[in-house]
């Protein structure tokens, strides 16, 4: 193992211990080859649990947004959505026109829509579209439903047909039943972890489970703009739509920049999860349980990191830890 990766491994393991995650995994790809693969811990925090291996499937939580983002990119490329600047009301006529106002598809995929939901499911507006940035769930559900309406199938079905099967990815799935390969999720370290399953595999719930290898391969597909082993699995324009900065007219330079849900590095921003030493054009996605994909095109590098603990980085410190991790990766390949 190269000394260049020791600091990254130590960091990942330190966070695992400090935040009481029972499992961790780290995989680094360089020039389309796996150069580091490290698994540690167990599927659960109970005294009897099986070790984490390359066949363990982690719940990747909100990282599933990158899968939805690719489906939205297909819809834009194929003209099912004419433009990111189309008004949302043209696609969501079941929602209140006054509430949606001038919200566009662009606002929905870059977290700048300003919509939120109460506990009873009623929708309200936090800020005018394009005038702020907030990480909410309503836009994800809206776009998930829109994909189903546009393609007459769920976006996981669309991706399975167009991407997963052609790539031979068989360890990426929305799980509804318990099985021994699934890593449980820790909500409270003082209580036993549990399976995070959904009632459906239609992409509407956070029940996407992926092995660390296939999580990295997902990032590598994006790095190579849809071309794997000389074969163009999907049009490169689809990847470019998903991974280039799509925010528009946001004058607040502290706010993150997004592609289709991916966080994209243009220049370092105070509220971005990507570190200041990470090259321009890099992009990242993460979930609340700790899974992260970091893609650095300048270095031809993809990193997949897994944990199984909610709020893994702890309260208000999570941005600091995420920036620190991405900077460590960038440092390992710089120069």
Report on the architecture of this protein.
By secondary structure, this protein is α+β, with helices and mostly antiparallel strands. The chain has one domain: Beta-lactamase (3-Layer(aba) Sandwich), CATH 3.40.710. The chain is 29% helix and 16% strand. The chain contains 9 helices and 13 strands. The strands form 4 sheets. A 6-stranded antiparallel beta sheet has the order 2-1-13-12-11-10, with helices on both faces. Strands 3-7-6 form a 3-stranded antiparallel beta sheet. It has a two-stranded antiparallel ribbon with strand order 4-5. Helix 2 crosses helix 8. It is globular and about 55 Å long.
Structural class: alpha+beta
Query: What series of H and E elements makes up the topology?
Result: HEEEHHHEEHHEEHEEHEEEEH
N-to-C span: 19 Å
Let me know the largest β-sheet.
Answer: 6 strands, antiparallel
Helix percentage = 25-40%
CATH topology: Beta-lactamase
Radius of gyration: 19 Å
Distinct helical segment count: 9
Beta-strand segment tally = 13
Shape-level CATH architecture:
3-Layer(aba) Sandwich
CATH class bucket = Alpha Beta
Query: What is the CATH homologous superfamily assignment?
Result: DD-peptidase/beta-lactamase superfamily
Strand content: 15-25%
Tally of discrete structural domains: 1
């Amino acid at each position: 193992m190269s000394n260049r990766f020791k600091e990254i491994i130590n960091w990942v393991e330190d966070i695992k211990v400090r935040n009481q995650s029972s499992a961790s995994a780290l995989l680094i790809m360089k020039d389309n080859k796996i150069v580091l693969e490290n698994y540690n811990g167990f599927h659960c925090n109970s005294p009897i649990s099986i070790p984490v291996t390359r066949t363990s499937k982690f719940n990747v939580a909100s990282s599933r947004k990158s899968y939805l983002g690719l489906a939205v990119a297909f819809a834009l490329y194929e003209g099912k959505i004419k433009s990111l600047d189309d008004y949302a009301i043209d696609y969501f006529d079941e929602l209140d026109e006054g509430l949606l106002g001038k919200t566009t598809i662009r606002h929905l995929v870059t977290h700048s829509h300003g919509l939120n939901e109460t506990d009873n499911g009623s929708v309200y507006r936090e800020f005018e579209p394009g005038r702020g940035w907030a990480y909410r769930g309503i836009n994800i559900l809206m776009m998930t439903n829109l994909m189903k309406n546009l393609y007459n199938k769920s976006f996981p079905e669309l991706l399975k047909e167009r991407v997963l099967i052609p790539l031979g990815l068989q360890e990426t799935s929305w799980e509804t039943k318990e099985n021994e390969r699934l890593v449980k999720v820790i909500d409270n370290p003082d209580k036993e972890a549990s399976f995070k399953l959904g009632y459906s595999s239609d992409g509407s719930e956070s029940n996407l489970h992926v092995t660390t290898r296939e999580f990295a391969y997902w990032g590598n597909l994006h790095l190579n703009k849809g071309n794997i082993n000389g074969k163009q699995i999907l049009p490169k324009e689809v990847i470019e739509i998903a991974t280039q900065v799509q925010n528009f007219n946001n004058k607040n330079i502290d706010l993150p920049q997004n592609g289709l849900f991916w966080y994209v590095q243009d220049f370092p921003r105070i509220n971005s999860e990507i570190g200041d030493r990470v090259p321009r054009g890099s992009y990242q996605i993460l979930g609340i349980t700790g899974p992260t994909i970091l893609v650095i095109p300048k270095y031809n590098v993809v990193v997949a990191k897994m944990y199984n603990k909610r709020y893994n980085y702890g309260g208000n410190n999570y941005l600091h830890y995420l920036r620190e991790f991405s900077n460590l990766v960038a440092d390992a390949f710089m120069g």
